[in-house]
Amino acid sequence: MTLDLFIVAWIGIALFALAALWFIDAPYGRQMRSGWGPGVPNRLAWTLMEVVVLVSFYAVVWASGVELSLPTITFAALLTCHYVNRSFIYPWRTRTKGKVMPLSIMLMSVLFNSVNGFFLGSDLTALNRDSSWFSDPRFMIGLVIFGCGMALNMHSDNILLRLRKPGDTGYHIPRGGAFRWVTSPNLLGEIIEWIGFAILTWSLSGLAFALWTCANLVPRARSNQRWYQQKFPDYPSDRRVLVPGVW
């Protein structure tokens, strides 16, 4: 019960984060600007701030001493697949040599991801669902949603990565795939992914992770839209922010 209360409080903080990020563009990537302290090489920063999810998650799992059920091992495997890509594969495929991320932003992300990993590890080991969970409709539906979100995220990331030729550090209008309909399908894919994870685990920590993902990425998608429209006069006027045909 105490863990649940902490997770509920964490969800409440996500609402404040959403409000803050709606008005303040986080200064990294396209929105990078001075005034946020010293910088860390971009690819290294991404690796360090993403891998801590796995470090904190597996530290809690190890400390619990719980013999994990097959469904819990499956949850851990899905989490690991996502964060191995985000920590060690995606950042080092980006052509961002010479670009930096503010140390302050990296440290805030490290804190955020450490807390999320801690809550996921604590909650999922406490639940430790038995093998009957594999036949539960929530698991099956959530797994399909998670897979679709991951596919959309990775496909959209690949389109973005191919925009820059070797030696190019500029920005270009992405085209093709789901970019035909929205500005940030990579972010939409990640949101869908974690909504699926919340459903397939049917856990409070999964819900918190999905809501925090929305709190971070929905304002980011809105910021991306404004940035592209200001940067490129010929940016497609019918391209929505995040949800095709809606917003």
From TrEMBL:
Which Gene Ontology cellular-component terms appear in the entry?
membrane
From the record, give the transmembrane residue ranges.
6-24, 44-62, 68-88, 100-119, 139-155, 191-212
Single Gene Ontology MF annotation: 3-oxo-5-alpha-steroid 4-dehydrogenase (NADP+) activity
EC id:
1.3.1.22
Kindly state which keywords UniProt assigns to this record, in alphabetical order. Membrane, Oxidoreductase, Transmembrane, Transmembrane helix
GO terms of biological process kind: steroid metabolic process
EC supergroup of this enzyme: oxidoreductase
Q: Which organism is it from?
A: Corynebacterium epidermidicanis
**What residues does the 3-oxo-5-alpha-steroid 4-dehydrogenase C-terminal domain cover?**
101-247
Q: Does the keyword Cytoplasm apply?
A: no
Q: How does it sit in the membrane?
A: Multi-pass membrane protein
Grouped into one coarse class, the protein's main location is: membrane
Q: What is this protein called?
A: 3-oxo-5-alpha-steroid 4-dehydrogenase
The cross-references to InterPro entries, in alphabetical order and at most eight, read:
3-oxo-5-alpha-steroid_4-DH (IPR016636), 3-oxo-5_a-steroid_4-DH_C (IPR001104), SRD5A/TECR (IPR039357)
Location within or outside the cell: Membrane
Q: Name one Pfam family in it.
A: Steroid_dh
Superkingdom of origin: Bacteria
